[in-house]
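WARN no homologs supplied; continuing
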Amino acid sequence: MKTSLFLKIFLWFWLAMTLVGVLLVVSGEITRSQREIPPLREFTRDAMSFAQRSTEILERRGLPALEEYLERLEQTSRIRVTIFDSQGQEISGHPAPVGAGELAARAQRSRRVEFQPSAGALLVARSAAAPAGESYTMVGQIPGPRMGWRAQPAELALRLLVVVMTGGVVCYGLARYLTSPVSKLQKATQQLAGGDLTARVGPALEKRGDEFADLGRDFDLMAERIEWLINSQRRLLSDISHELRSPLARLNVALELARQRTGSEAAHSLDRIEREAERMNELIGQLLGLARLDNGAEVGQQERVSLANLLSEVTADADFEAGSSKRRVRIIESEDCVVTGSTKLLRSAIENIVRNGLRYTAQGTEVEVGLRRGQTDKGAYALIMVRDHGPGVPEATLGKLFRPFYRVGDARDRQSGGTGLGLAIAERIIRLHGGTVRASNASDKGLRVEIRLPIEASS
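OK structure emitted
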């Protein structure tokens, strides 16, 4: 399963920021709770001395002095204190918290420090004996929020949610910033590979001022170089083809003059010269056609073309020509589809592919041609299939069959497959009509070529 670079960067950055944020929140709460624990520790440690001091003040100086001492203790330690006698009566004059009496009685029996939560607070009790022998119990009330984050789960959950959402927004922007140049480069690369030699990324990346901007400039330089080389090649083919037409015409004139001035003994040689001149003229015509198609030639006058009728005419002509070589061309299925384009160009493209199949199919076999309708999310299309029963081609060379002058064999004679321009011209014509063409090996030997052309919805 393929996962995009943007999603990987976004998720990893978000996870990292979330973990860091959670750790900071939790550690902050823990340290805060630890900072708030010392009053409890100090009160617990000094509870015995506080209790004895309170009982001494009560017996020697009276209740007003005790109240003054307890108020001073509350201001310094932030702990409210109440005093209970041995009968469980509160004698300090302060309102006793809920459960303070029961805790005081338990501390008086155990003679140890006792704890008990009460109404969002923590009660701490310690008993002590006065100099006169009377036993008193001091109960301190420590507010609950000072006991740490465990007492506030809602607040902690809100903080964690803020961390997660903030981290998500920041990481989304960061991941988008890092991966957007890659997306622009990918789009420009696809355009360049699809034949758009003007594809560039400079305007979209030059303002970044980082390594992606450098990469964008390098890509543009590469694209400019490729565009110059391909355009130079196209101009060279076109110029050479045009320049060869004039000497070829003069050669034909000289050939006719030679026929008139020589006898029959030179007829064979002159016939051979004429055949080679005709082949050269055919090659030049193909080169000029390819140059026009590569230079973005228009389809010309648009018309509605019935592919079923066109395919029937092409296969009938090809089958008639193949009869002498013990080969056949046969339509195995035909579903009428109507496309918009040039009948002449489409006929040329289909003829080139059918004749290529005839050239390679074995004697005693036939080239199978089919036409049917297909449907995708992008619309309806016509599928033309041409299949021969030849040796096929190596898998590594399938994508190169539609390049100009490319042949699978190393030989350069006409018996090895012609000039190597027929399939290239067919591919350009089909692309001009908004279609695609691809080749594949059949499971039981032979080459299968499929043409897809967009068709009218009402056809």
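The radius of gyration is 48 Å.
OK
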